[in-house]
Amino acid sequence: MSGVTQNLENVDDIDYSDIEAKYKVEYDDSFDNTLIVDGVPIIDRSKLERLLTKICKEFSRKGVPVKPDDIFMPWDESTGKSKGYLFMDFRNANDANTALLAMDNHPFDAKHTFKLNRFDDGEKYANMDETYVEPEIEEYTPREHLRAWLTDPQGRDQYVVYRGDDVEIYWHGKPSQCELAYKPDWKDFLYVSWSPQGTYIATLHRQGVRLWGGPSWKPQQRFAHPLVKLIDFSPCENYVVTWSNEPIVVPEGKPQGPQYFSPDDEGNNLAVWDIKSGHLLRTFSTNAGTEGAVKRQMQWPALKWSPDDKFVARVTPGQMISVHELPSMFLHDKKSLKIEGVVDFEWCPLSDKDRDEVEKVASVGAKGAKKAPENMIAYWTPEVANQPARVTLLSFPGRAILRQKNLFNVSECKLHWQNQGDFLCVKVDRHTKTKKSIFCNLEIFRVREKDFPVEVVELKDTVTDFSWEPKGERFAIVSTNDPNLGNPGPGITIKTDVSFYQLDRVKNDFKLLKTLPNRTSNAIRWSPRGRFVVLATVGSSTKSELEFWDLDFTLEDRRDGQVVKEDWGSSIQSLGLADHYGVTDVEWDPSGRYLATSASAWTHTLENGYAIWDFRGQELLKQIQDRFKQFLWRPRPRTLLSKDQQKQIRKNLKEFSRVFEEEDQRESENVNTELLALRRRLVDEWNAWRARSKKELGEVQGHDHAKEKQSEEDKEEIEVWVEEVVEQIEEEVED
After folding, report:
1. CA-based nearest residue to 255, from 97, 57, 63, 34
2. Are 479 and 463 in contact (CB under 8 A)?
3. What is the CA radius of gyration of the chain?
4. How confident is residue 561, by pLDDT bands cut at 50, 70 and 90?
5. How far apart are CA 522 and CA 539, in angstroms?
6. What pLDDT score does 227 carry?
7. Judging by DSSP bridges, how do beta strands 230-233 and 218-223 pair with one another?
8. At what angle do helices 48-61 and 93-103 cross, to 10 degrees?
9. How far lies 564's CA from each of 145, 378, 510, 572, 723, in Å?
10. Measured between alpha carbons, how far is 489 from 424 in angstroms, rounded to an integer?
11. 110-130 tens-digit pLDDT
């Protein structure tokens, strides 16, 4: 018994400290994984479940999954309602930090915005040392201006060329001013695209989209959309849409957060992003209800932006138009525009005057600014049962119907807005009662006038292309009655007519100015400044003509600054003809002074390259390049000059012109001086070479002569005397 007692005493003396230290469980008394969410709607207990479900969905959509069991909602016992805030637990501190970044200042609905704080911050701020400590002043590093290229002293434009695997960005101006601006080392991308105002250039990679900009062309933003194929910027460059033919998949362990897809996005393939923050706003699917050939005919852009970036809309063919607010991407007024049979729609562009009003309203402290004009949507519906086809103008967000026009025997409609929103042309393809032939009508809405009057231009042929003159009241059409139009065979070029129309303010209709018959042109390209137009034959294997036209050639008779308008039709004159074999793309530069044509290897592989022409059709530059793919002018934003400043410049144009003419003269003299110096140098080099050659030749000839003389001097005549005994006779001589 005493031995057992002794053993028990020995057991009590064993040291377990090493084992305890090894397996000790640390008690975490911090609240790093807990957040306080303020700005929550105040509800009663009956709505708790619905509210928690919606909150969880919002957090999951931003890549921060949370469950209702992880949320604690405090209640006011006196009123039986919530207190407007809640506590939310996450798995760890990293998830809580992600949620804080993604959801702080997130608009939950029109009246509530989430404000997130860490739970530990309450105690930290309560016990904060109130002693003032001088903060360290960080050295200021100025950011690059993303529109620095606009300050070019020579006022040059830029363009990008994509050839093979290389991209090059060039300055373009006078011949002496054209030079390489930047050659990036971007690799493994699909193609490049400028943003609408030229601030960014986008490259599409397998992993997603990268935006570049600034004088050093540093990366500005990225959007992680794997296998992206298409991209579309909003007009004001605040947002961007990306599309892939592959549905979104979020594998296990992938990064989560506001800049990445979440499990809720799986299966979708269209994404909307905020450019400044890089955050994903929402995803959609473009595959719903489409099969086979319909998928290949997907309309792009699939989302259409309002001109002020406040709304983005998409059509569900035959059912509705859904308009979403930005940046929340909530459905406006929580309901779509239910329109039976709707086929297509377009937003009305803002005029320069309306855009100025929008900017005034948006500016802080703007006084005297009028109410910003409402946006407008035009849409059309086909004939359904006994209802005729119809074109409708709708204000938005007011949703008031402004004008409707019934149409009959309609096969197809296309909506064409003038870039200032002054006119809307509905190109209506109509069929005869037997439906054996197609003809075309142009229904033109004069949007800026009372009651939206409509003018009709009736045509007997099919219209294959329509284009408004920018900021003008003219338009051009390409029409044809060629029987090969529906099914052209190889080597067959469709014969077309090109016609120009002008609004006659006296008769209040559009009259024909001139028709150019028996053409092969199939594309109309107006100069962005109007007046000049190029008619091109694009995509043909046999024809590649370019016609340069001036619609005001003899129109302006300026007397004392006044413009006298004469016969409109006689003012249309040809400036020149040109040809670019295999041309696939035709594009004016932003100034309207130069035109670029290109033949892309994406379409064919014969004589790929690009050419630059002036507005008269004179070729300035031509580059034939193997594996050439893309040529794009860099767009310019709207001018910062006011209307009064522009008028003042026009008024004093002669003074400004004199300065530019002097610069041109100096440059011409410099060029001539340089050319003369070059010629003199070449002549001097030629004379020096000639003299040197003569000298060398003389030395060679003299050396040969000396050698010849020396050889003559060295030559000796040697005479050899040979004695030979022929016969020996001995005689005796007597005395």
Report:
1. 63
2. yes
3. 40
4. very low
5. 9
6. 94
7. unpaired
8. 90
9. 44, 36, 20, 16, 126
10. 35
11. 889 999 988 888 777 778 788
